[in-house]
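Lab manual, section 2.4: Encoding a predicted structure.

Procedure: take the sequence of the chain (144 residues), apply the prediction step described in section 2.3, and record the output as structure tokens. A sample record is shown.
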Amino acid sequence: MSYTRDELIPYVAGILDGEGCITINYRKGKKYLRPGIYISNTSKDLMNFLSSFYPKWHRYETEEDKIKNHKTKWEIRTWNTNNMIRCLEELFPFLIVKKEHAKVMLKFLKLPNRNRQGRRKKVFTEKEMDLYRKLKILNRKGVN
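Recorded output:
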């Protein structure tokens, strides 16, 4: 059975909700804020599907998780601003768990004069740092 892209969008939103991460990495020593979207899973078929759904994203077999008796973990990710904006706007109506993450990330990605592609910058605006901190709190592990 073949599905249209519009029919698959809610499914992909569910995958991002359950298996994905919407984050901004901060490297103090290197002076950059690098936004990214990642989806990890042990199903190579799922990652191949996602690679065809988002062909400009990068797919990896993760080495750090190769533990005896564990399945190989696969990951698909993007750091490209335009790819992230398109993805989040497309999936936003169907997100549940990561809806607030997506809202914060879209605000960050659409900031005027934002440094693109994680290039180094000497000083970040208060708005950039505020959105980074909000997303960091949303991504915090453990008991709230």
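Check your result against the sample. The radius of gyration is 16 Å.
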